């Protein structure tokens, strides 16, 4: 039997992850007290093969029972069961926004500030993050993207490097991305905006991509950008970073930045990196 323990921060997307695991054929249980995991495993073992893949959502809601989780995981492994940990994380800013949107209080600080509850939770589950086989930062992931990441891990068997690379294109005239780790300015590249027959297209269109990438400086820049990202990623992983946000900006965020962002995204995906893409300003405000 295979067990997957889904854990992580409150508001990071564990409920969505559990729904995805159900779609993948896992028998899912939410908020099972940690101390009951060994008994539950024994029950599944005697189900005569009817239950082979189990996903358990275990988090801070378990209160005092949550403290037994490491002991229960160790027990599963000692009994010879395959057991992996999927840890879902997100930035403090995103978690606060999600709590406010749903009008929920934090389970560890229901009468106080949300950020204090988040910080306390991070401290309590830090050991689980270190134990995790897979870490997904959902800060910039849609529900659909999260499902794809989980499918890549548990269906396709794609090796997880425990870092999600988020590629974002944007236009400087509409403001720089505040949460970017790396920002690259491609306003030096020839601009399709000044070509009448190209102006209304975007970097997602073949005509724009061909125009932007037909110049020697464009090809050289993309090659150097790929080399730099290849160099940096292992060091970010070594540092323990779970999400890397790379922003590509041009004047309006419609042509050059979209083209370069798409190429970088495609290259990183081909290399097996967990990568998402978003074009912030591709539609007029």
From TrEMBL:
Keywords: ATP-binding, GTP-binding, Nucleotide-binding
Chain positions recorded as GTP binding sites: 59-62
GO molecular function: ATP binding; GTP binding
Keyword match Nucleotide-binding: yes
Any Pfam family the entry gives: RapZ-like_N
Domain RapZ C-terminal span(s) in chain numbering: 164-283
Binding site for ATP: 8-15
Domain RapZ-like N-terminal: 1-154
NCBIfam families documented for this protein: PRK05416.1
Official protein name in the record: RNase adaptor protein RapZ
